[in-house]
Amino acid sequence: MEQALLLNERKLLEALRAGDESAFTELTRTYNASLLRVAQIYVSSRAVAEEVVQETWLAVLQGIDRFEGRSSLKTWIFTILTNRAKTRAVRERRTIPFSSLQPDRVPEPALEPERFRDPDDQRWPGHWAVPPQAWPEDRLVAGETREELAEAIETLPASQRAVISLRDLEGWSADEVCNALAISETNQRVLLHRARSKVRKALEEYLG
To answer: Domain 2-91 is of which CATH architecture?
Structure first.
């Protein structure tokens, strides 16, 4: 599997360096939405994030011949994106919300405390009082449910939205997300857990 991915990336690099327009179009189609989500962590608006993404693609075209393959092509592209987004945020005199990528000093509860039994409960201390419910499979795959899922993700804080989108929608590994966002494994895990919990809550309310 890994060898096949490396081979595909090598072929893609060769095509990009040869000026193959279709290869570049496929690359932008694959990563553009994810780049936009990540850019929105750092800059003030979607419009500015779109500009940063365009700048990133221009930098990719200009620098593809100098790409040495020390990381994956995907990681390299997202590193360019995050660097440019941070630079743009400074230029706007906006505080870059690195704090949004760090665990809070006071942990945010992923679910409402009332969903759990009291820690002093004699029989099941701290266990579920209102456990998650199983959902009918036919409703989970329905178009309306998928739309609700997308809407729930869009309402998340930018950092949580980026992490859950990369992990659960794009299928990235934890290491890939940490490299792309320049965050620790612990931070990635906390952001993902919070995002998944909020999305699950939204789906519970919708399907309930």
So the answer is: Orthogonal Bundle (1.10)
